[in-house]
Amino acid sequence: MADKDKLVEDLTNCVQSGNFAGVLRCLRENYATISKKLNAFGVRDLLKKTTKDRLLVSFVDSLEFGSRPVEESLVRLEKLMALQPGTLVISKSIEWGLGVVKRLDYFYKRITVDFRMKKSHQFSYAAAADMLKIIGPEHVLAIQYSDPDRFSKLLKDQPDEIVKLVLQSFGPLSIVRIEDIIVRSGFVKSANWKQFWEGARAKLRKDSRVYIPTSRNDNIELKATEENYGEGWLSALGRETDPKTILSSIREYVAKGRFKDANGQARATIEDRLSFAVTAARRVNDALYATLAITIKSLGLEKPTLAEMREYLWEKRRFIRALDTINQQEIKNLLLFLAIDEESRAKICAAIPDLSYAPIVEIVNLFADDPVSRKTIADYLRLPKSPAPLTTLFTGRYDVYKQNWPELPPCISILSHAIALGEGRQNGEMLKMQNIIRRLFADKAWLEKVFSWLNDNEKALIFERFQASIAWDPSTHHAIVMRMVHIAPELSQHVVKVEKKKEYSRITSRRSYALKKKEYLKLINEDMPENVRKIEEAKGYGDLSENAEYQYAKDEQRILMQKQTLMQADLEAVKADDFENVPTDEVAPGVAVRVDTNEGEKIYSILGEWDNNFELGIISAKTKLAQNMLGKKVGDQFELPGEGQVVFGKVIEILPLSEPVKDWMKIPAEIGVQV
Q1: In the CATH hierarchy, which fold is given to the domain comprising 507-577?
Q2: Has residue 423 got a pLDDT over 90?
Q3: Residue 626 contacts residue 620 (beta carbons within 8 Å)
């Protein structure tokens, strides 16, 4: 009891002397002891009583004492106090690179941070406490910022040291993640990554503190001490039961050159653990099973037998899941492991429609000398819709394969598939392949080479097919069309002249703008901080690679970050408008239109991008119906959107907006956001 009284006395003295840091420190260290005497609101009032500094008071007010454990609120307060101008930070997703705290605004309770890739970004106090991480002077981003000359010298002469700095700063990372950080942070350009990594890897492999896994998706680890691979290591391996750890440990052992000199006991232990790992991975992880099989074959071990491992991978076409998961080098090794005769090569080729781009590249390269495999691949390219990975590969490398691959269909057939692949909305790997196709068509040298293989009739067919493709960016599409005409001037007679539509400003009503802004504020002040909390909580559930809660939360974070970027861009691009005094000589945003349709007369009020109210007849200027009417005058016809037969409507009258529509555009008080 005396200890509690002493703590309360110390707190009282700190309060009376205005020692805010002392009060915070005392509360942080001893709250469990005095919690019965001082609840959350008592802590809040005590902190506010200690200081008249408006910034500190605004920090305390923002913490919402009582809505979370007091200890957590105190940690957040301590973090906010550390976010002073000039402090170096990163966002937890590091999407924006290094940030420097620019200013703090106690009135609006905002912290402004200049990120390398996002200047003057504002965080609420809550979002800052959740999403920002303060970094020390030894962090790789801090070194780049504070000592650019030293950093440039390391990049040039010691790329391995840069990688080790990244690992020290962020912890164990996969090669894919290291590449993402190094490229995104501007250390090297994406085009130079391969050269940088090859130089770094050569030195890292000689560093006994560094373990580099074969898979690009497994983590590289930087150990505190060197491993001597003696009896202790062998004994620990003999007790290991996690198949991933067994595989990584043995591969590290082999990579360091120890296996070739291993004695009988060591080889027996390795064979026993690999056999155990194969059994553990069976029916659980096909990619891991395949990688273990490759390792066992490369080491020349006898158990399990290669035949039974191949049989397992053939069953239920498990090899497909494995090929789509493992890295490029392992893909090649797995194909060589499986393709031992004509029958096995036929099985692999039969799976091409179900495989992704990387394994298909290896299949084409490995089986190019086999006439049966060549014919199977060529037949896929002759289908009305060939597999996208094959289309992508042969579109870019047709000249490489056409000389020694007589079974290939003509170039025009592959180009037709490529144009179709370049159309429509795609995602994931399909989007990557679509981007490859689009880059090829934008490459003048490639176009010239392709046109040299086509006769005049084929050039005209491809030109007209591409010109009719509507899913490309308009400016890019026009540039490619003109480039084709430049390469083959006779195509000018096939050019279709498109009437250029009048462009309108990107506007919306004040009501819709306020609603969008409210949604954005909820996203950055509530949804994103809550997502960060989920991520931190999920980290406590175990191995991140097999932690579903963590993966779901990270997926959600990526979606939220993308949504935040898109919403911010929209709010900056679209302007709020009152639609006052809009002329009624033609259809434009801000007028009502009385039209005659096959269903009778209707009145539509055309407003801005985000406006829509079915009952009042309000439609967005971005709808297909509004787009077809824009620019029309009284008496003009326009196409009514719909499927099947083309139906036209007619503009009868263009009117000012009605009073109910004007009232609807006003910002309701309950929205609580002004523009």
Answers
A1: Helix Hairpins (1.10.287)
A2: no
A3: yes
